[in-house]
Design goal:
Helix content is 41%, strand content 17%. It is α/β, with parallel strands linked by helices and 351 residues long. The structure holds nicotinamide-adenine-dinucleotide and UDP-4-deoxy-4-formamido-beta-L-arabinopyranose.
């Protein structure tokens, strides 16, 4: 059970946007299990309305995720006003498909930037002074790993990446304007699923990301995995990323929240990398999957994917020290839980 050090005389109430999504749902579980009161909102555009029931099954506590679109400012303000005493917000709601953002930039700016601006107004109207924001390692572009928070932010290579940079600037400006307490968490590559296999990632259509593509190939939804390039200057020729388990990531949100609520975020605006600190190649990910699943993966080598950086992994010392957080799971656990989730999904779909 959580020990509150924030001198609040009751359990803090936390608003989570994008609560039904991949990272949001796992964070809802951790928040509930730690004793927070939680209110979720989502427009279910990239998630299922059944996620609230799945979260409740895990935690044994009823939960509501209300259907609110953060682009609808009036509805958002009314929703926040209706739920008095919200202490802090964790803001996940956004679009996240890099390729789609190149095709439809306005859609991404409207939702990710416009939605965040609406949220900040709704918070200001209701005197809510703390926010944890979902940012991305994409802000660093091609940088020499391990990448720490002093690494300069590069010009974004996609509208999606740019929305994350603009949101960070927007949050920094809001901090300057009205003292909003902001922690921006820059995630590396979130993967895996909850141990219960009741919640996990739900990619719409053909997955862009490696791990759901692997599990969908193994289950028979995709014919084969194409490895995008095996001529990179890395030990096995494939790209290197920092794959972090979604439960480790969810736990970091609690640590960031506690840090804020305890008054430790003295800068007012701060950023933290969230990764494992370890890089894994595409072939290492495939090997870990084959080992834990006992499946042989149908795989071919294809050309490089446009826009891919060669290698990126995090230096997480800042989050380790300041937030008192570190990852507890390894790549094999990531692959094992992702595979269990894919199998559970297949059972649900066949019912
Ligand atoms: P997700 O798509 O699973 O979850 C996002 C949720 O937000 C979805 O349930 C979606 O329906 C909801 N949503 C989108 N637009 C909304 C709107 N206008 N109003 C209300 N709800 C809305 O994505 P995720 O992987 O859980 O990502 C969460 C956050 O983390 C996003 O901001 C994403 O950009 C960021 N992020 C994700 C990754 C990743 O690889 N998954 C990496 C870095 C950062
Ligand atoms: C990982 C590696 C691919 C699919 C993206 C976003 C980033 C962040 C995380 C949100 C790469 C290779 C992939 C496949 C492959 N999201 N791959 N075959 O590109 O590191 O990051 O998700 O903020 O912004 O860009 O993740 O999972 O797409 O790719 O060989 O079918 O797997 O080339 O090396 P990425 P990914």
């Amino acid at each position: 059970m959580l020990i509150f050090t924030n001198n609040l005389n009751k359990t803090p109430k936390i608003l989570v946007t994008g609560a039904a999504g991949f990272i949001g749902s796992h964070t809802m579980v951790e928040l509930q299990q730690a004793g927070y009161q939680v209110i979720g909102l989502d427009n279910f555009e990239n998630s299922s309305i059944h996620v609230a029931d799945q979260i409740s099954s895990i935690t044994g506590t009823p939960i509501t995720i209300e259907n609110i679109d953060i682009r609808n400012k009036k509805a958002l303000i009314a929703f926040v006003q209706q739920h008095k005493d919200i202490h802090a917000v964790i803001h996940f709601a956004a679009y996240k498909a890099v390729g789609e953002s190149v095709q439809f930039p306005t859609k991404y700016y409207e939702n990710n930037v416009g939605g965040t601006a609406n949220l900040l107004d709704a918070m200001a109207v209701n005197d809510i002074n703390s926010i944890v924001f979902s940012s991305s390692c994409t802000v660093y572009g091609e940088a020499n790993p391990p990448v720490d928070e002093t690494t300069p932010v590069q010009i974004a290579t996609s509208p999606y990446g740019n929305t994350k940079q603009i949101c960070e600037e927007l949050l920094r400006d809001q901090n300057r304007a009205n003292g909003l307490n902001v922690i921006s968490l820059r995630y590396f590559n979130p993967v895996g699923a909850h141990d219960s296999a009741l919640i996990g990632e739900l990619p719409l259509g053909i997955p862009n990301n490696l791990v759901p593509f692997i599990t969908q190939t193994a289950i028979g939804k995709r014919k084969q995995l194409t490895v995008f390039g095996n001529d990179y200057p890395t030990p096995d020729g494939t790209c290197i990323r920092d794959y972090i388990h979604v439960v480790d990531l969810a736990k970091a949100h609690l640590k960031a929240l506690e840090y804020q609520l305890a008054g430790k975020n003295q800068l007012g605006f701060d950023v933290f990398n969230l990764g494992t600190g370890k890089g894994s190649s595409v072939l290492e990910v495939v090997a870990a999957f084959e080992k834990v699943s006992g499946q042989h993966l149908n795989m071919v080598f294809g050309p490089r994917r446009a826009g891919d950086v060669v290698q990126v992994y995090a230096a997480c010392d800042k989050a380790n020290k300041a937030l008192g957080w570190k990852t507890e799971r390894n790549l094999e656990n990531c692959m094992q839980t992702a595979w269990a989730w894919e199998q559970a999904l297949a059972k649900m779909e066949n019912k």
